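Predict structure. Input: ABC transporter ATP-binding protein, 249 residues.
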Amino acid sequence: MHAQDLTVVRGSRTVLRGLGFTVPRGRITGLLGPSGCGKSTLMRAVVGTQAKVTGTLDVLGRPAGHPSLRTRIGYVTQAPSVYDDLTVHQNLDYFAAILAPGRTAADRRQDVDRVLADVDLTSHADSLAGALSGGQRSRVSLAVALLGTPDLLVLDEPTVGLDPVLRRDLWQLFHRLAEERGATLLVSSHVMDEAERCHQLLLMRAGEVLAEGTPEALRTRTGSDTVETAFLRLVDEAAAAARTEESTR
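Output follows.
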């Protein structure tokens, strides 16, 4: 994935400001920053659902939103995208049928069983989605995104509301998807300790990319012990640069 001068304007507000970055294939890239910095808007641009996007954004060798990408990208929004009046299995079977029309029920069952095991919900397959906890419903949404073994997974804060054990298990799954299946993952979070679990980071603030690189490189660049401290130092540097620019006008 590659972006150059990527800009999104919503009304009178510029939400993304001329972003430029690269997301390497087969790696986990963490998109980190405070709430409201533009992470979700950027993810919608990547999957092709964001309006008023200018600049260049190439995804898997195609322009973002190209019809050929629809079956190659799995997308998980912050709000669970499931039907509460269907069971977990029925939800997954429904989306599997949409993803690949014409497949037999037996073929779909294999896919459904696989993703249920991936997100540790096999024992809840016959439970109504509406009766699940918030964290469980989020995992159903993740299972939907895993149907069809996508080349790119775009996950908007997938670990919010999960207990530490489930968070650990999901990150282990993310690494297996990258290392064993060659998938590329773009994972957003405002929890800085999750940054250490990523291969690559994009640090965002106020619609801009403050820095990109590996966690180690960003810590070294700022002389910090943690990514959180590195982020705060980069914020301070950006604020100081803005004040200097303002004073010289």
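The mean pLDDT is 93.
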